[in-house]
Design goal:
It comes from Agrocybe pediades. The protein is α+β, with helices and mostly antiparallel strands and 298 residues long. It has four helices and 18 strands. The structure holds 2-acetamido-2-deoxy-beta-D-glucopyranose (4 copies).
Length: 298
């Protein structure tokens, strides 16, 4: 049983490594900052456009996904049962036991990388990436990348309209809002996005449980409302993850249940979405940076 799961694990890691290779990740600059005997892992900053830096082999990353994102191999597998010397004891009665039907669902966890319009990584969704308005910033520090988990059908290659649950947020405030959410824009007059409209969404955290896929936007406590005191509507079961490519996309639902195009972009490093980013950009007189998200599963 354990051998089977480590084989599955190894296969998953190889597949993840292969898909990472396909993205030809530039290596973040790595360094180690130590105080007394405590080293804070990596403090990576992405190279300026065009530049490429060489990774240091001495970094300590928390998870295999972070190691893969950094071009390293996975950590050696942990042995979960003690191997004893002497005669191996055969397990008994397993054949005659009631067969256990495996759950039709599996939970997958990973980190989220943000790629720019050229497909180059520019940062991560971090454990501490919320600003004072409860908005989600792109964080350049790989070792700060937040872990998020979702549940999908066993064997599925696409996880459709799932919610993503953070497991390790560190900032007081956002830690109470563990679901990655799309939140109604502060200037929106309603919860609808349409092409030719300047209305927009921001990324943030929301309280659980997640409303089911296709739910209409409704007020749920979230990082933006908590930070600003302004009630904003939220959707959480909006993420679709292609488990082969890692691509992570969003789908908003309007008040009349129509599903508008939901393009993701950044404004000064803050994640937004809209059905018409150009119209948003003109109305708000800001420059937008189109981005795509990549889910790197463990
Ligand atoms: C990125 O993460 C680091 C390490 O946790 C933190 O100090 C920094 O404030 C974060 N930056 C942003 C823009 O959130
Ligand atoms: C469009 O711009 C105007 C003027 O700045 C602003 O008042 C309005 O809230 C903006 N609309 C949206 C949807 O952001
Ligand atoms: C939102 O959540 C925060 C943090 O848990 C809580 O203090 C606050 O009372 C909540 N607000 C509402 C309107 O539920
Ligand atoms: C929101 O409205 C304010 C006030 O009109 C305006 O200054 C700001 O640029 C608007 N923001 C966006 C994103 O449209």
């Amino acid at each position: 049983m354990h051998r089977v799961s480590s084989i599955i694990c190894a296969v998953v890691l190889v597949v993840a490594a292969a898909s990472l290779k396909a993205y030809a990740f530039p290596m973040p600059q790595l360094g180690k900052q130590c105080m007394l005997n405590y080293c804070m892992g990596t403090f990576a900053t992405f190279p300026p456009r065009g530049g490429r830096r060489v990774p240091s082999p001495t970094i300590q990353l928390r998870t295999n996904a972070q190691r893969l994102a950094d071009g390293l191999g996975p950590k050696p597998p942990m042995r979960r049962t003690q191997q004893r010397r002497g005669t191996p004891v055969r397990r008994q009665a397993e054949v005659s036991a009631t067969p256990i039907t495996p759950s039709p669902f599996v939970t997958r966890c990973g980190i989220m990388t943000i790629m720019d319009g050229d497909g180059e990584p520019v940062g991560y969704i971090g454990r501490s990436s919320f600003d004072e308005s409860g908005l989600l910033l792109i964080n350049e520090t790989l070792s700060d990348a937040a872990t998020a988990c979702f549940t999908a059908e066993r064997g599925a290659s696409i996880a459709q309209s799932v919610s993503l649950s953070f497991t390790d947020l560190t900032t007081e405030g956002p830690i109470d809002f563990p679901l990655l959410a799309l939140i109604q824009g502060m200037n929106n007059t309603d919860s609808n996005l349409t092409p030719l409209s300047a209305q927009y969404l921001t990324f943030g955290g929301a309280v659980g449980p997640a409303a089911p896929p296709g739910s209409l936007p409704e007020y749920t406590n979230n990082t933006v409302s908590f930070a600003t005191g302004v009630e904003r509507t939220v959707l959480t079961s909006v993420w679709t993850i292609n488990l082969n490519s890692g691509s992570l996309t969003a789908q908003w639902t309007n008040e009349d249940a129509t599903q508008p195009p939901t393009h993701i972009f950044a404004v000064d490093g803050i994640l937004h979405a809209s059905a018409d980013p150009v119209r948003f950009s003109i109305n708000a007189t800001v420059t937008i940076d189109p981005v795509t998200l990549l889910f790197i599963a463990f």
